[in-house]
Structures are given as structure tokens and as C-alpha cells.
Amino acid sequence: MMPVARESLLDAAYTALARRPWGAVRMVDVAAAAGVSRQTLYNEFGSKDGLARALVRREADGYLAGVERALATPSDTRDRLTATAEWTASAARNNALVHAMLTGCWNEKLPEPRLSAVPSTSAVPAQRRADGPLPSPGDFVELVRDRAVAALAGPGARPADATDLARSCELVVRLALSCVVAPPDRGGVTDLVRGALHRHPV
Questions:
Q1: DSSP 3-state of 109
Q2: Region label for 112, one of left (φ > 0), alpha (ψ between -120 and 50) or beta (otherwise)
Q3: Which alpha helices (H) appear in the chain, and where do they start and end?
Q4: What does the pLDDT look like over 82-120, one tens digit per residue?
Q5: By CB neighbour count within 10 A (0-12 exposed, 13-18 middle, 19+ buried), where does 49 fall?
Q6: Which residues touch 20 (CB under 8 Å, ≥6 apart)?
Q7: How far apart are CA 179 and CA 184, in angstroms?
Q8: Over 80: is that where the pLDDT of 199 sits?
Q9: Nearby residues of 22 by Cβ (< 8 Å), 6 or more positions away
Q10: Can you give the pTM of this predicted structure?
Q11: For the chain, how big is the Rg over CA atoms in Å?
């Protein structure tokens, strides 16, 4: 679990980003909103770029945790994949950073840390992780697909069955992302996914 100060600082940075472009977010204001000193903020993240990476990493982790919850719902495979697609569309609609990460479409209001790792001298383990590689849209497709296969494949599943399941899971993820980029007029992601799974049973 993250230390309280780090989590409070990330909450403050997220709130500030909702109110103004990242370029106008000041470190001193983030520290004040979290009730800590500016030095504590710099000790934790190193720089504003470090704060941006940590914020993006946290939102990525939050999105993937939601995927895990959707896949863990006690229902059949089709419902669990539908719940995963619904969560993906909802998370992207309600969180600008998740939308940017899933689509690769960053705008001037958002921080846009490079996805490759950056040199890290931080003594804070959570910051060293944030300074590591950040997931690309393609990485998210693979991460969600692989989590879905792991959650849905029964014990003793044959390789051919796992391959078919992986294809269906990836199809669902890509359909959900298409709804993020171009929201359907009616029916939404649920109807699209259920229709696809009807044609490609899992």
C-alpha cells in the first residue's frame, strides 16, 4: 500500500489536473492541497515529470484493477467479458488519463510522459516503478487479454481452447477500445460485445 503522503499528493495532482492544464499545475499548489511541504513532494517524486509518471502509473494500475474486478464477477464467461468491456469504456469516459493511455491520444492539457523507462535515482520503490516503462495502447490490449484468459480458462484447458479464448478476449478488448474512440450511437458497448460473442462463442 502506498504511504499516505504519496497517495494524498497523487490525489491532489489528479484534482488539479481536472481543473487546469498540466502545464499550469504548480508543485507548490499540489503540496499545499495535500497538506505537506513542497520538499516532501520533491522527496517523493523528484520532479514534476516524476509526479506525472507516478500519476499515469497509478491511473493505469487503477484501470487494470477494475479489469480484475470485472473478470472476478461470479457469472458466466460472456457476462464477465461484457463487464470488462463496459468497465473499459466507462473508465476511459470518466478518466482523461485512462482515455489517453488506452488510445494514445494525449492532448495539450495532459502530462505526456514518455513510455520508455527513465533513469531513476529515487529511494522510493513506488517511484522507481513509475520511472520504469509505462504501458502503450498495445500493451493494454495484451495485458487485459492475458488477464482475461487467466481468469476464464478452466483447469486442464487444452492449448487449442486457450488459443480460441485468447482470440475472443482480444476481440472484446478491441471492441471496447473502438467504443472509446468512436462511441456507438445506441446500444453501446454491451450490445456490440454480446453480438460478437454470439457469433464467436466462448
A1: coil
A2: beta
A3: 4-19, 27-34, 38-45, 48-71, 77-94, 96-103, 125-130, 137-152, 159-181, 188-199
A4: 999 999 999 999 999 999 999 999 999 999 999 999 999
A5: middle
A6: none
A7: 6
A8: no
A9: 52, 109, 110, 111
A10: 0.91
A11: 19
Give the C-alpha separation, 1 to 166, whole Å: 31
Return the amino acid letter for 47.
S
Task: State how far the Cα of 78 lies from the Cα of 172, in Å rounded to an integer.
Answer: 10
Q: Which residue has the cell 487479454?
A: 145
Nine cell digits for residue 115: 513510455
> Using CA atoms, how far apart are residues 123 and 91, in angstroms rounded to an integer?
31
Q: Which long-range contacts (CB under 8 A, 24 or more apart) does 105-111 make?
A: 105/181, 108/21, 108/23, 109/17, 109/21, 109/22, 110/17, 110/21, 110/22, 111/17, 111/22, 111/49, 111/52, 111/55, 111/56
